[in-house]
Task: structure prediction
Amino acid sequence: MPTVKTAPARSKAVAVVPKKEPVTPSWVGRVPLLKPGQYSDGMPIHHVEYLCCKLLLRPNRFISRQSLFDFGKVMRGPAKQNGVGFSVAGFDSQPVKIREVLFIDTDDFRLYNNAFILRRRIPYKDGFPIGDPEVVFKFRHPDMQVAAETDMRPHILGDHQVKFKCQALPLKEKQIQQSKLEAEARKEATVKNAEAMAEAKVIDSKAELERRKMMTEGEADRIRHVAAADSERLRMEADVLKQSPLLIQKIIAEKLSDKVQIMMVPNDGKFFFANDVLKGATTVRTTE
Result:
């Protein structure tokens, strides 16, 4: 009896295509929807036309034209990893573009303080301005509804363009951490400055107290020396008067008047001028 051999089933390799996840979360739905509205002339308010993402860079390393292209080479990797198109084609052969940028405001910065920006740009070629200057008037506000309801249409007859865009700035964890570190560093520096100022004030106070103490001690020492000198002078004068009692009359005469003439007389008191003055005064009163 013939036998039938069954061939083993062939296994077919099935390629499983993994589901491609979005490289970056979509911004659609994150931008808040605007409430319908109208301007004063009945025209509807503007809506967001496009999303503008900006990357803040520190200018420390951009010191030449070549440094910009070197940075472009570094950005190719992150751009490809996140599905962002990046190209510098044609820019490497173009000359450097120079623009004069001027921001205009009032003396008290009323435009800036109310979220308005007035800017003028003038392009240069070979060191000379070319074309007409570009004047831009912006209103930048974190509330998109407020920004949309602000009528920025110019009241001019010339050519103009109104753009309503949403700008997104990255807030990466590294930048947040760096901002925290910078804030902590500023706080620590402020505390250290305050401590240094307090210590300086304490040192100044101690120096002032020491100065006043030295002045007080000096004044006390001066008073003691003056008192000692006066005591010594009085002692010497007492010794002199003890040896020459007639000097008392001389001292009294000097104290009475600067017009009194001094005359030395015997010490028996007969010719003492005080007795004569008293006797003269008594005679006058008796005569009267």
User: Anything to note?
Assistant: Residues 173-243 form the longest helix (71 residues). The chain is about 45% helix and 10% strand.
